[in-house]
Amino acid sequence: MTTHPAGKPRQAAIAAWIGSALEYYDFFIYGTAAALVFNKVFFPASDPATGTLMAVATFGVGYVARPLGAVVLGHIGDRYGRKRVLVFTLLLMGAATFAVGCLPSYHQSGVLAPVLLVVLRLLQGLSAAGEQAGANSMTLEHAPAHRRAYYTSFTLSGTQAGQILATAVFLPVSALPEGTLLSWGWRVPFWASFLVVVIGFVIRRRLDETPVFERQVAARGTARLPVAVLFRDHWRDVVRVVLASTIASVSTIFSVYALSYAVNTVELDRSAMLWVGVLANAAALIALPLCAALADRVGRKPVFIAGSAGCAALMFAYLGAISAGSYPMVFGVGIVLFGIVYSAANGIWPAFYGEMFTAEVRLSGMAIGTQIGFAIAGFAPTIAAAIGGTGAGGWIGVAVFTAVLCAVNIAAVASGRETHRVPTERLGMRAADTGSQPAPTP
Question: Is 44 helix (H, G, I), strand (E, B) or coil?
């Protein structure tokens, strides 16, 4: 009888948490800057409304590169190992982010400035394409079968921590005088990514490859072209993940559109709105593992669907509170919406999506499926800014748009099979392969 090395779920979860926090600090400081200052630094020739729309659009550009990055990094991760992907994504993200802080403004170099900004945002998108899929695959394949959701949720906890750090860094920066903020103050959070790269590189170089991947290599080797196997055997699940991943639109609309709408349209206090994000993400750090632990007991689908339906309803309340200028309501609803209810879906998907695929194509399946869905989410703030009105009820169209996207991901999740009781070795397999498991797709 062959014995297999045991996984190291705690070490993998901690490494994924820290790495994701550092990686997504880089990614989210861009979103905050896009909402608060990029319209004046890189697009000042436009009128204020158009400048804001163009600045928010550059946030979405980072998601355009994600599907391509998912194919490339998914191939590397499924053919050569999860660890290589995690080290590469961190280095690329850190270098691109540091370079953003060194860019000249529009007044200094004209149209070259926004062009370079878009190029660097594309590089950030390439990096992010493999980050979560790699970290999720790593933690899922180290975790015991009955706690896969709990351990994989630490990747998303790290992401939320990165968003807290990114927002917290902008709190003192945003309080600077306008001239100082627009000249060099906004650059400081980007320059700080150098430290991010050093710390993250040391941590991820010490990661062990997963025992599941090593057993896959020892028993059957790796596919020459994992993406070909993926679309031959799992294309329905890829489509399902794409549609389910539109839940991320709740995050981008909350973090980018709602922030810009509150500060630039309703003219609420900038620091107060940043604090809404900090407190909501702090609440998410507690809610994510709790929701994931619940999903290990009752299943992935009911927890995910409940969270998505709650987000659809609460977005109306949150945008309405912003429009009314009620700070108590903005804080209360914002924390419940993004910190607790969104966590019910956000904490489940790392396990739920990964469990649809075999180890042979898991990283590719998660990366490609999520990054196409996240590309839609990345442009959700741009679409929201375009359809949102300027009157008292201008936010209603955006809330309806968010609810429609939530309905799409609810339908996708409901169509999948429940996987929380499937052994790790049988994940993604057909009934014919396992002799007892139901087919992974209808």
Answer: coil
Of 162, 144, 137, whose CA–CA distance to 17 is shortest? Answer: 162
Q: How many CB atoms lie within 10 A of CB 113?
A: 17
| Residues written for the chain | 442
Residue with tokens 């550009």: 61
Provide the greatest CA pair distance for the chain: 72
Distance of alpha carbon 63 from alpha carbon 375, whole angstroms = 4
Q: Which of 352, 348, 364 is nearest to 85 (CA)?
A: 364
Residue 50 to residue 48: CA distance in whole angstroms? 6
260-269, 362-371, 410-419, range with the lowest pLDDT: 260-269
Residue found under tokens 């031959």: 232
Residue 182, both tokens? 């627009």
Please compute the mean of the pLDDT values over residues 111-138 and round it to a whole number: 85
CA atoms in the 13 A half-sphere facing the CB of 17: 17
Tokens, residue 132: 């979560």
- Residue-wise pLDDT tens digits, 13-62: 887 888 788 777 877 787 778 777 887 888 776 666 666 667 666 666 77
Name the more confident of 343 and 29: 343
Question: Where do we find the tokens 């896009």?
Answer: 34
DSSP per position, 91-110:
HHHHHHHHHHTT---HHHHT
Q: Which amino acid is at 27?
A: F
The structural domains of the chain, with segments of one domain joined by +, span 9-434
- Give the pLDDT band of residue 358 (cuts 50, 70, 90): very high
Q: What is the pLDDT of residues 53-102, one digit of tens each?
A: 676 666 667 777 888 889 999 999 999 888 888 888 888 888 888 999 99
**Does the pLDDT of residue 1 top 80, yes or no?**
no
Distance of CA 96 to CAs 23, 190, 220, 309, 371, Å? Answer: 11, 9, 37, 36, 19
Q: Which helix (H) or strand (E) holds 249?
A: helix 248-252
Q: How many CA atoms, within 13 angstroms, populate the side-chain half-sphere of residue 15?
A: 28
CB atoms within 10 A of CB 190: 22
User: Pick from 86, 205, 203: which is nearest to 135 by CA?
Assistant: 86
Instruction: Please state, in angstroms and rounded to a whole number, the distance separating the CA atoms of residues 83 and 61.
Output: 27
Please work out, in degrees rounded to the nearest 5, the angle formed at the alpha carbon of residue 128 by the alpha carbons of 236 and 217: 60
**What is the value of pTM for the model shown?**
0.81
Dist CA 342 CA 13 (whole Å)? 21
Decide which of 1.20.1250.20, 3.55.40.20, 1.10.10.60, 3.40.50.720 is the CATH code for 9-434: 1.20.1250.20
